[in-house]
Design brief:
Blueprint: H1 5-18, H2 24-36, H3 40-45, H4 53-67, H5 72-76, E1 78-81, E2 84-87, H6 100-117, E3 120-125, H7 131-139, E4 143-149, H8 152-164, E5 171-175, E6 186-191, H9 206-209, H10 225-234, E7 238-247, H11 253-261, E8 265-272, E9 278-285
Bound molecules: glutamine.
Pfam family, one: MTS
Family: Belongs to the protein N5-glutamine methyltransferase family. PrmC subfamily.
Protein name: Release factor glutamine methyltransferase
C-alpha cells in the first residue's frame, strides 16, 4: 500500500521534531509541498491521496538532510523573494525575508528617478542570487541593473535567476570586489554585504554557518570591512541625486552611518526589519560635502 500524503506529512514532522528542529511542523509542510510541487493548501485538500514510492523515497531522503540541519530552501534549491522564484547555489546567501525591507525602501526611489530621467541605473554589490536587484527590476520597468560579485558561481546563478524571471534583458553581471571593477555612475547603489563579526560566526545556527557561504557572512573583525570598501568608492559612482541602500546588522546603525558620513554622505532614513531590528540604511550625497 502506498503512503497517503497525510501519513507522510505526519512522519516528516515527527522525524524533524525528534531531530530537535524547532520549526518541524512548518518545515515539514514546506519540504513536502516543495518536493511534490504542490501548493501548501493542497496538503490539506489532497491529504488522503496516495504518494508514489518514488516520491516517498525522495521526501525521506530530503527529511534526513533537514534533520542534519540543512535549511529547507537549500534542499529545495530555490526560494521565493519579493514574489520572484530564485535558484540558490553553493556560493549564494539564501535570501531572507528581512531583506525584502530593502526592496520596499528603494522602490520609491527607483520610480522617482525613472520618472524624472526615463531610466534608473542600479548596481547591486555582492549580488549573490541577484535577489535585491532583480526584485527592483521586476517592480520598476524602466530600471536596469548591474549585479557584481566576487564569486563566479554567484554571478552564474544571478544570470540564471534573471532569465527565469524574464529580467535578463535589463540585467548584467560583473566580477568585482565591491566597486573595484565598476565603471561609471549609478542612480542606486545597493548592497547586502557580509556584516557579521568574524568571532561571532562560530555561534551562528548550523543552518547558517554550515550552509550559507562564509564570504557572504563574514564582515571581518568588527563586521564593517565591506562598508569601509564601499564607502571609500561610492562617491565616484553615485549620480548627484542618487541613493545608497545598505543592509546592516542589528547593532551597526551608528557605526555604518558614521562611516558614510565621513565620506560625504547623509543618512536619509533607517528602516527596521520584520523583527523590529535596524536593518536598512539609505544614504544620499551630503549637500554640504565637496563632490568627488
Ligand atoms: N542576515 C544574515 C544573517 O543574519 C547575514 C547576512 C549578511 O551578513 N549580509 O544570517
Amino acid at each position: 500500500m502506498p503512503e497517503t500524503l497525510d501519513n507522510l506529512l505526519a512522519e516528516t514532522r515527527d522525524r524533524l521534531k525528534a531531530a530537535g528542529i524547532e520549526s518541524a511542523a512548518l518545515d515539514a509542510r514546506h519540504l513536502v509541498s516543495g518536493l511534490l510541487e504542490l501548493a501548501l493548501a493542497a496538503l490539506v485538500t489532497r491529504g488522503r491521496e496516495p504518494v508514489s514510492d518514488e516520491d516517498a523515497a525522495r521526501i525521506r531522503a530530503a527529511v534526513e538532510r533537514r534533520a542534519a540541519h540543512e535549511p529547507v530552501y537549500r534542499i529545495l534549491g530555490e526560494r521565493e523573494f519579493s514574489g520572484l522564484k530564485l535558484k540558490l547555489s553553493k556560493e549564494t546567501l539564501e535570501p531572507r525575508p528581512d531583506t525584502e525591507t530593502m526592496v520596499e525602501c528603494l522602490i520609491p526611489h527607483a520610480r522617482r528617478i525613472a520618472l524624472k530621467k526615463g531610466s534608473c541605473r542600479i548596481v547591486d554589490l555582492g549580488t549573490g542570487t541577484g535577489a535585491i536587484c532583480l526584485a527592483l527590476l521586476d517592480a520598476v520597468l524602466d530600471a536596469r541593473g548591474l549585479g557584481t560579485d566576487i564569486s563566479e558561481d554567484a554571478l552564474a546563478t544571478a544570470c540564471e535567476n534573471a532569465r527565469r524571471n524574464g529580467l535578463a534583458g535589463r540585467f548584467e553581471t560583473l566580477r568585482s570586489n565591491w566597486l573595484e571593477a565598476v565603471n561609471g555612475r549609478f542612480d542606486i547603489i545597493v548592497s547586502n554585504p557580509p556584516y557579521i563579526r568574524s568571532n561571532v560566526i562560530p555561534d551562528l545556527e548550523p543552518e547558517v554557518k554550515f550552509h550559507d557561504p562564509a564570504a557572504a557572512l563574514d564582515g571581518g573583525e568588527d563586521g564593517l570591512n565591506a562598508y569601509r570598501a564601499i564607502a571609500s568608492d561610492a562617491g565616484r559612482h553615485l549620480e548627484p541625486d542618487g541613493v545608497i541602500g545598505l543592509e546592516i546588522g542589528f547593532d551597526q546603525k551608528q557605526a555604518v552611518t558614521a562611516l558614510f558620513e565621513a565620506h560625504g554622505f547623509h543618512m536619509l532614513y533607517a528602516a527596521k526589519d520584520l523583527g523590529g531590528n535596524d536593518r536598512v540604511l539609505v544614504f544620499e550625497h551630503d549637500p554640504a560635502a565637496p563632490r568627488v
